[in-house]
Automatic annotation (TrEMBL):
Pfam families according to UniProt: ROK
Similarity annotation: Belongs to the ROK (NagC/XylR) family.
Superkingdom classification of source: Bacteria
Protein name: ROK family protein
Lineage, uppermost ranks: Bacteria, Bacillati, Bacillota, Bacilli, Lactobacillales
Amino acid sequence: MNILAIDIGGTTIKSDVYCNDKSLGQFNEMPTQVDLNTQTNNILNQVEQLISHTIEELSLQNKQLSGVAIATAGVVDSSQGTVVYAGYTIPNYGGTDFSSMIQEQFDLPCVVLNDVNSATYAEYKLNDYNKEDTLLCLTIGTGIGSGIVIHNNLLIGHTFSAGEVGYMPIEGQKYQNIASTTALVKNYQSVLNSKEPVNGKMIFEAYHHNNSKAVHVVREWIQQLVKGLLPMVYILNPTTIALGGGVMAQHEVLIPLIKDELRHQLESEAFMPKSIKPMNVGNEAGRLGAYYYFLDHVSSK
């Protein structure tokens, strides 16, 4: 089966065709067409054109497209293939119905998943997890999102918003406002009392040189990150916590600090997950997760 997997973000749309778990070399990347001034987007048309182009390219190789698998930002009703809610980065995105368009225009089956859920599914499928495991994935970037697999099933939720932990209140603030990479950068800039641009790379370069301000900010940020992890650990009792996002390039520093802080904040060592590790799926996570979800939930029917 040749499956077109598409990863839709607020900045770019990336796609590739997969068959037998391998890319067919059809990778494509384009800017996401959004206009914050007019509060509009052109994503549905972009996806339609992308599918048409892929069908044409495959036909030149005497191949056919078998289905479409989409990972996208926003809250997604996977049962209907529609976006239920999206933040300000993709205006007027709620209500976008990928499934109907793909069925009507191309008569192809499709799946649509939230992007973090898709990355979580890729992490689960591509690594050595047991069916009895509970996997909690946390992605840390501009915001914070999570995905959960329990006993071989991706947890979607009653209104399709399971894992939207970035909105969780922690000491009167949204979790993502105190524990995202954005929060880390903002805190370091405040400590420096500087208006000069700061990024994560600069912070960890200073940290590795034992800069007292960087060490202080990183350790405070770890405390905030773990405050949000704490209720997830108590509720889910996960076998593994896998952490993703660009900041996890520093996993050799961060994972030991997170483990130590979690042990400190937990009531007992008995509540500790078996493993805390960086996610191990790379830049294809969204596309691969959607691809595997298609294979498991559409092609297997």
